[in-house]
């Protein structure tokens, strides 16, 4: 049987590099443990990076937040 393979290396953009970085961070979280990189990459593309100031409310019911750096304190 003949097999033809076409490989394309997409050009790296700041958005794709950010998505890859998020996918690598996700690998360290139990929720995404064992998830293949390509799946984490797809999930990371719908994530956004947010920055907050001390005292700012950042958690909403039904939302998932992953803290990459710093501390978060939950108060009732």
Describe this structure in words.
The protein has about 80 residues and is mostly helical. The protein has a domain of about 30 residues. The protein is built from 2 helices and no strands. α1 crosses α2. About 5% of the residues are buried.
Summarize the structure.
The protein is an all-alpha fold. 28% of the residues lie in helices and 0% in strands.
Quick tags:
mainly alpha; 28% helix; 76 residues
Structural class: mainly alpha
| Oligomeric state of this protein | single chain
Average pLDDT, rounded to a whole number, is 84
Total count of strands: 0
Q: How many strands, which pairing sense, and closed or not: the largest β-sheet?
A: none
Order of helices and strands: HH
Gyration radius, in Å: 17 Å
Strand content: under 5%
What's the shape? elongated
Q: Which stretches of 5+ consecutive residues score pLDDT under 50?
A: none
Tally of contiguous helical segments = 2
Please write out the topology.
Layout: H1 14-26, H2 37-44
């Amino acid at each position: 049987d003949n097999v033809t393979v076409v490989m394309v290396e997409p050009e790296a953009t700041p958005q794709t590099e950010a998505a890859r970085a998020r996918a690598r961070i996700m690998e360290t979280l139990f929720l995404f443990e064992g998830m293949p990189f390509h799946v984490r990459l797809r999930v990371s593309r719908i994530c956004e990076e947010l920055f907050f100031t001390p005292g700012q409310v950042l958690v909403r019911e039904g939302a998932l937040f992953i803290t990459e750096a710093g501390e978060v304190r939950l108060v009732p």
